[in-house]
Amino acid sequence: MVVGLLDGRVRSGAEPLLRPDDAGAMRGEGVFETILVQGGQPRDLPEHLARLAKSATMLDFQGPPDADWLHGVHAVLGAFPGGDLVLRLVSTRGPAGAPPTCYVTGTPVPDEVLRQRVQGVAVLLLDRGFAGSDAAAAPWMLTSAKTLSYAVNMAALRHARSMGADDVIFVGRDGAVMEAPTATVVVVRDRTLVTPPLDGILDGITVVRLIRAAQDAGWATAYERLTPDDLSAADGVFLVSSVRLVAPVTSIDEVPRPGAERAGELLDLLDAPPR
């Protein structure tokens, strides 16, 4: 790992960075964005910076301006000449009375991510414990902010792996499909893309890009309530995220499902130049 500070300096990931009383470390009070870099170019960087600022505002603190973040981004990119990598922009509330702690990290794309793009993922359906409408009525739950508080999501992934699966799709207590711990759910029906409405889930940047590209290519698109039965009936089910891009779902609750071959179509849409 390489760490880029917002003054343009580069540090090793092994060097200490956070104070012990940093609110990000003590309480998970912070926000982050994860960005794929391909050919030296970060994908959708302006959109990620905008969502980072929005998430910080929802936690009632203000991070640095975009120009400062770009110093850190360029510092990391300069330390990784060529090749794909993962950028992570992190902003914590910082210690009490101090400004936010902000930095950028760069790491190679994990082999598991590359594998899942090609081979797909086996998923379990897990109870989210609330419905999307519950989250909309309780903004303090911060479901539409990308915060550092990922303990529940990581616990869900560990549970899936203990059961022989790769990932999870959360289902609300009203029976509606919501999202995966680190991805958005997308369903393909012929030449129609469907993804769940945004109540209680994070607005995925890569999904927005995919939907716009699909519309440009003549596909129909919709934000629509989905159920587990809709997943079973779909021509393809995919987990879409910034680094993994498109991972086909190859089984749900140990039941194999078809459609993985359509992942190539979605990847082509993501890579198509905008009209």
UniProtKB/TrEMBL annotation:
GO MF, one example: lyase activity
Family: Belongs to the class-IV pyridoxal-phosphate-dependent aminotransferase family.
GO biological process: carboxylic acid biosynthetic process
Protein name: 4-amino-4-deoxychorismate lyase
Keywords (A to Z) from UniProt: Lyase
Gene3D superfamilies associated with the record: 3.30.470.10, D-amino Acid Aminotransferase, subunit A, domain 2
PANTHER family: AMINO-ACID AMINOTRANSFERASE, AMINODEOXYCHORISMATE LYASE
GO (cellular component) term, any one: cytosol
Top-level division of the source organism's lineage: Bacteria
UniProt lineage: Bacteria, Bacillati, Actinomycetota, Actinomycetes, Nakamurellales
Keyword Phosphoprotein: no
Species assigned in the record: Nakamurella panacisegetis
